[in-house]
Amino acid sequence: MVGEKIAGRYEVEELVGHGGMSSVYKARDALLERHVALKILHDQYSSDEAFVERFKREARSVAQLQHPNIVTVIDRGEEDGRQYIVFEYIEGENLKELVVRKGRLDVHEALEIALEVARGLAFAHQNGLVHRDVKPQNVLLNGDRLAKVTDFGIARTVDVDGMTQTGTVLGTSNYIAPEQATGQRVDAHSDVYALGTVLYELLAGDVPFPGESFVAVAMKHVHEPPPNLLDVRKDVPLRVAAAVDRALEKDPEQRFPTMDAFAAELEACLAELDHGVDGDKTMVIPARRRRPRKQVSRWPLAVGILGLLAIAAVVVGLLTLGGTSGGKKSEAATIFPVTGLTSYDPFSSDKAEHSEDAPNITDGNAGTYWTTEQYNDAPSLGKPGVGVVVDAGKVAQLSRIVVDTDTPGFTAQIDEHRGRHTATDLPQADRQTEDDIRTAANSAVALLRDLDQEAAAGPRLCARQRGARFQRLSRKASSSVLQLRPALLAFERELDQALEQFVVRDA
Q: Please, are residues 92 and 141 in contact by the beta-carbon 8 Å criterion?
């Protein structure tokens, strides 16, 4: 081919790419005096009507897509039985070559490239075209580092009969969506999955499911969960990792609903990265002045405040969470409002405690509150603790969570639970397991060791107030602490002895 002139116009200079169906050459357009990319269907497929039609369809479909992130089609034709398509020539390298050369990319660079690819694919989807073979080799980078999607060779329009045909597997297995690997319906969600896999590779330096054969890799996409990106690379922001996780969901309906939505999330990730939003973050949970119900329990159970995507707390502390009318907030903090809240109790049959009242914690109404169940047998509380799940409305790496409350002696443990979960998705507790016993006991011991400081908050608070009633409350609270301490110390010793039976492992 090199040295030939196609259609009396395109002078073939060199081979730049070779695939299963076609080869791509760098050629010079003698008419317009510029370089172009000349894609020629292999001879063995030129007599196959199905392949020829697919080749022609690629030219027709992509010719309708005028977008800065999609390689432009210039011409199409046939000469001496050979089918060809002429594209704009991109002077640079493809994305796979970049990853091979540099390894994993800078987070910002990876997001920028993925965003440009997403924009190009979103435009194709809006025009009824699904790529079905999104991979780094099909993303070209020009001298300005602008990403352009190419090779729509196995793309299908949404209204083509074969679009929903089952039993046909087309695509590259390293980036293939589960439904595509099993010959099921392929749509825009499949391109979302493939781009999520590409972004994973850009950040991790390798594909999530390496393997030696097409089938082996494809089955991993179908059956195995992707590796945790944060385990592979610690500096990836939580929001970016969550976006990759969502794109790689096995169920298409659990992914981003559209490529536009994926692009919007990538834009948001870049904006946070550019403005340093992932730095010092504080979630402030505004509490209010409490009006507790009448209680008879002398051994209240704790409330845990949970943040990030979902956090489970197992603590021993105070029964009723109410609050103050206000509190001081760090001026430098980025405040994340609470958008959802529910109770979480893995140790009860219904997995919740007065869940319908949990939103009262942050509803801004001073007359509402949340209480847990009552426990009267001390120190046999019946369970290690309960908590609440707080939804910050977005993925964010919090440096601290501030709870403003005038409830004395309030303590809480914050435990991270990564991933996109609702309260009902949190792992359920099995009290018979060694890990759960160890975790509950450790939590109780750690909190009890701080009890003196926390319990003293009540007397100090009352002592600062004027009036005989507050003074009486201060003396009563101090007396209660003195009576309570021996029982608590005995409880701590008993738990310490129980802990000696187990090997404490890193969480």
A: yes
- Tell me which H or E stretch contains 213: none
CATH number (1.10.510.10, 3.30.1490.20, 3.40.640.10, 2.40.30.170) of 93-274 reads: 1.10.510.10
Task: Choose the CATH number for 5-88 among 2.60.120.260, 2.60.40.10, 3.30.200.20, 3.20.20.220.
Answer: 3.30.200.20
Instruction: Name which of 354, 421, 432, 418 is nearest 386 in CA terms.
Output: 354
Half-sphere exposure of 192 (CA within 13 A, CB side): 31
Helix axes 95-102, 188-204, angle to 10 degrees: 20
**DSSP three-state, residue 411:** coil
DSSP letter (8 states) at residue 417:
B
CB 300 within 8 A of CB 335: no
Contacts of 471 (CB under 8 A, 6+ apart): 462, 463
Q: Is 456 exposed, middle or buried (0-12, 13-18, 19+ CB in 10 A)?
A: middle
Q: Is 17 exposed, middle or buried (0-12, 13-18, 19+ CB in 10 A)?
A: middle
Active site residues: 133
- Spatial neighbors of 386 by CB under 8 A, at least 6 apart, are 301, 302, 303, 304, 343, 344, 345, 347, 353, 372
Least trusted range by pLDDT, from 116-125, 253-262, 427-436, 457-466: 427-436
pLDDT in tens, 420-451: 444 344 444 444 445 555 555 555 555 555 55
Reading the block at residue 113, the tokens are 């490239």
Is residue 343 a contact partner of residue 354, using CB atoms and an 8 Å limit?
yes
Q: Residue ranges per domain, the chain?
A: 5-88, 93-274, 279-428, 430-507
Q: Is the pLDDT of residue 159 over 70?
A: no
| Tokens of residue 416, six digits | 């991270």
Can you spell out the DSSP letters for 334-367?
EE----EEEEE-TTSTTS-SSGGGGGGGGSS-TT
DSSP secondary structure letters along 250-263: SSGGGS-SSHHHHH
CA distance 403 to 284: 6
Q: Which two tokens stand for residue 228?
A: 């945790």
Cβ partners under 8 Å of residue 392, min gap 6: 283, 307, 308, 309, 336, 337, 338, 339, 398
- Residue that is written with structure tokens 């209204």 in the block: 159
User: Are 284 and 404 spatial neighbours (Cβ–Cβ below 8 Å)?
Assistant: yes
